[in-house]
Write a structure and sequence with these properties.
- Strand 7 and strand 8 form a beta hairpin.
- Helices cover 3% and strands 49% of the residues.
- The protein has an 8-stranded antiparallel barrel with strand order 1-2-3-4-9-8-7-6.
- It is globular.
- The chain has one domain.
- It is mostly beta strands.
- The structure holds manganese (II) ion.
Protein backbone atom coordinates (compact mmCIF):
# COMPACT_ATOMS: atom_id res chain seq x y z
CA UNK A 1 0.00 0.00 0.00
CA UNK A 2 1.19 3.43 -0.76
CA UNK A 3 0.21 7.05 -0.53
CA UNK A 4 2.63 8.03 -3.30
CA UNK A 5 -0.05 9.07 -5.77
CA UNK A 6 -1.94 10.97 -3.06
CA UNK A 7 1.21 12.90 -2.14
CA UNK A 8 2.35 13.49 -5.71
CA UNK A 9 -0.92 15.23 -6.53
CA UNK A 10 -0.78 17.68 -3.65
CA UNK A 11 1.37 20.56 -2.45
CA UNK A 12 1.15 20.37 1.34
CA UNK A 13 2.54 23.88 1.72
CA UNK A 14 -0.64 25.11 0.01
CA UNK A 15 -3.45 22.72 0.93
CA UNK A 16 -4.69 22.02 4.44
CA UNK A 17 -5.18 18.34 3.66
CA UNK A 18 -3.12 15.91 5.80
CA UNK A 19 0.12 14.56 4.42
CA UNK A 20 -0.70 11.34 6.18
CA UNK A 21 1.02 8.20 7.19
CA UNK A 22 0.20 4.57 6.64
CA UNK A 23 -1.20 3.16 9.83
CA UNK A 24 -0.81 -0.35 11.01
CA UNK A 25 -4.42 -1.38 11.15
CA UNK A 26 -3.88 -5.10 11.10
CA UNK A 27 -6.52 -7.16 12.82
CA UNK A 28 -8.84 -4.30 13.56
CA UNK A 29 -12.35 -5.62 13.34
CA UNK A 30 -14.18 -2.31 13.40
CA UNK A 31 -12.82 0.07 10.82
CA UNK A 32 -13.79 3.59 9.87
CA UNK A 33 -15.50 4.92 6.82
CA UNK A 34 -16.32 8.42 5.70
CA UNK A 35 -18.21 10.05 2.87
CA UNK A 36 -17.08 13.55 2.00
CA UNK A 37 -19.23 15.83 -0.12
CA UNK A 38 -16.73 17.45 -2.44
CA UNK A 39 -17.76 20.54 -4.37
CA UNK A 40 -14.97 20.59 -6.93
CA UNK A 41 -15.28 21.17 -10.68
CA UNK A 42 -18.09 18.63 -10.47
CA UNK A 43 -19.96 17.91 -7.27
CA UNK A 44 -19.35 14.35 -6.09
CA UNK A 45 -19.26 12.26 -2.95
CA UNK A 46 -16.02 10.55 -1.91
CA UNK A 47 -16.59 7.22 -0.21
CA UNK A 48 -13.55 6.09 1.78
CA UNK A 49 -13.12 2.76 3.55
CA UNK A 50 -10.29 1.89 5.93
CA UNK A 51 -8.53 -1.08 4.34
CA UNK A 52 -4.90 -2.10 4.87
CA UNK A 53 -3.99 1.03 6.83
CA UNK A 54 -5.21 3.55 4.26
CA UNK A 55 -8.55 4.88 3.08
CA UNK A 56 -9.49 3.14 -0.15
CA UNK A 57 -11.45 5.77 -2.06
CA UNK A 58 -14.17 6.06 -4.67
CA UNK A 59 -15.78 9.16 -6.18
CA UNK A 60 -19.53 8.67 -6.45
CA UNK A 61 -20.92 11.36 -8.78
CA UNK A 62 -24.58 10.88 -7.83
CA UNK A 63 -23.95 10.07 -4.18
CA UNK A 64 -24.23 6.77 -2.31
CA UNK A 65 -27.62 5.03 -2.45
CA UNK A 66 -29.52 5.04 0.84
CA UNK A 67 -31.92 2.23 0.00
CA UNK A 68 -31.90 -1.01 -1.94
CA UNK A 69 -32.62 -1.06 -5.66
CA UNK A 70 -30.34 1.83 -6.66
CA UNK A 71 -26.96 1.21 -8.27
CA UNK A 72 -24.44 4.02 -8.45
CA UNK A 73 -21.22 4.37 -10.37
CA UNK A 74 -18.20 4.68 -8.07
CA UNK A 75 -14.87 5.56 -9.64
CA UNK A 76 -11.88 4.42 -7.62
CA UNK A 77 -9.37 7.16 -6.87
CA UNK A 78 -6.03 7.20 -5.10
CA UNK A 79 -5.66 5.85 -1.56
CA UNK A 80 -5.92 8.54 1.10
CA UNK A 81 -4.34 8.58 4.58
CA UNK A 82 -6.53 7.55 7.52
CA UNK A 83 -6.38 11.10 8.94
CA UNK A 84 -8.23 12.29 5.87
CA UNK A 85 -11.44 10.98 7.43
CA UNK A 86 -11.45 14.09 9.66
CA UNK A 87 -10.71 16.57 6.90
CA UNK A 88 -13.18 19.30 6.09
CA UNK A 89 -12.43 22.63 4.56
CA UNK A 90 -11.41 24.44 1.46
CA UNK A 91 -8.79 23.17 -0.97
CA UNK A 92 -7.32 26.32 -2.51
CA UNK A 93 -7.83 27.30 -6.11
CA UNK A 94 -5.16 25.86 -8.37
CA UNK A 95 -4.58 22.86 -6.10
CA UNK A 96 -5.66 19.31 -6.87
CA UNK A 97 -9.35 18.88 -6.04
CA UNK A 98 -9.84 22.62 -5.45
CA UNK A 99 -13.17 23.34 -3.80
CA UNK A 100 -14.91 22.57 -0.55
CA UNK A 101 -14.98 19.31 1.35
CA UNK A 102 -17.53 18.53 4.04
CA UNK A 103 -18.16 15.32 5.93
CA UNK A 104 -21.51 13.97 4.71
CA UNK A 105 -21.46 10.75 6.70
CA UNK A 106 -19.03 8.93 8.95
CA UNK A 107 -19.01 5.78 11.01
CA UNK A 108 -17.56 2.33 11.36
CA UNK A 109 -17.89 -0.84 9.38
CA UNK A 110 -17.26 -4.53 9.56
CA UNK A 111 -15.84 -6.12 6.45
CA UNK A 112 -17.60 -9.21 5.16
CA UNK A 113 -15.51 -9.70 2.03
CA UNK A 114 -12.60 -7.77 0.55
CA UNK A 115 -10.92 -8.79 -2.65
CA UNK A 116 -9.66 -7.11 -5.81
CA UNK A 117 -13.01 -7.09 -7.59
CA UNK A 118 -15.58 -7.24 -4.83
CA UNK A 119 -16.03 -5.62 -1.44
CA UNK A 120 -18.88 -6.27 0.96
CA UNK A 121 -19.13 -4.15 4.10
CA UNK A 122 -21.64 -3.65 6.86
CA UNK A 123 -21.73 0.07 7.48
CA UNK A 124 -22.73 1.69 10.72
CA UNK A 125 -23.10 5.35 9.83
CA UNK A 126 -25.70 8.04 10.25
CA UNK A 127 -26.96 8.05 6.67
CA UNK A 128 -25.37 4.89 5.31
CA UNK A 129 -26.43 1.94 7.35
CA UNK A 130 -26.47 -1.71 6.44
CA UNK A 131 -24.87 -4.00 3.93
CA UNK A 132 -23.18 -2.39 0.94
CA UNK A 133 -21.56 -4.04 -2.03
CA UNK A 134 -18.92 -2.69 -4.39
CA UNK A 135 -18.34 -4.64 -7.60
CA UNK A 136 -15.56 -3.81 -10.03
CA UNK A 137 -16.73 -3.38 -13.62
CA UNK A 138 -14.89 -4.73 -16.60
CA UNK A 139 -13.85 -2.02 -19.09
CA UNK A 140 -16.45 -1.49 -21.82
CA UNK A 141 -16.81 0.91 -24.78
CA UNK A 142 -19.09 3.06 -22.63
CA UNK A 143 -17.02 2.90 -19.46
CA UNK A 144 -13.36 2.70 -20.25
CA UNK A 145 -10.64 2.11 -17.71
CA UNK A 146 -10.03 -0.11 -14.74
CA UNK A 147 -11.41 2.12 -12.01
CA UNK A 148 -15.16 1.79 -12.41
CA UNK A 149 -17.18 0.05 -9.75
CA UNK A 150 -20.87 -0.28 -8.93
CA UNK A 151 -22.03 0.64 -5.45
CA UNK A 152 -25.32 -0.59 -4.08
CA UNK A 153 -27.07 -1.53 -0.88
CA UNK A 154 -28.26 -5.09 -0.42
CA UNK A 155 -29.27 -6.92 2.69
CA UNK A 156 -28.82 -10.67 2.52
MN1 LIG B 1 -13.08 14.23 -4.45
Amino acid sequence: MTLEEYRRKRDFSKTGEPEGKIENAKDRVERIFVVQKHKATHLHYDLRLEIDGVLKSWAVPKGPPLREGIKRLAVQTEDHPIEYADFEGVIPEGEYGAGTVEIWDKGTFIAEEIDDNKIIVNLNGTKMNGRYILIKLKPSPRLKGENNWLLFKKEK
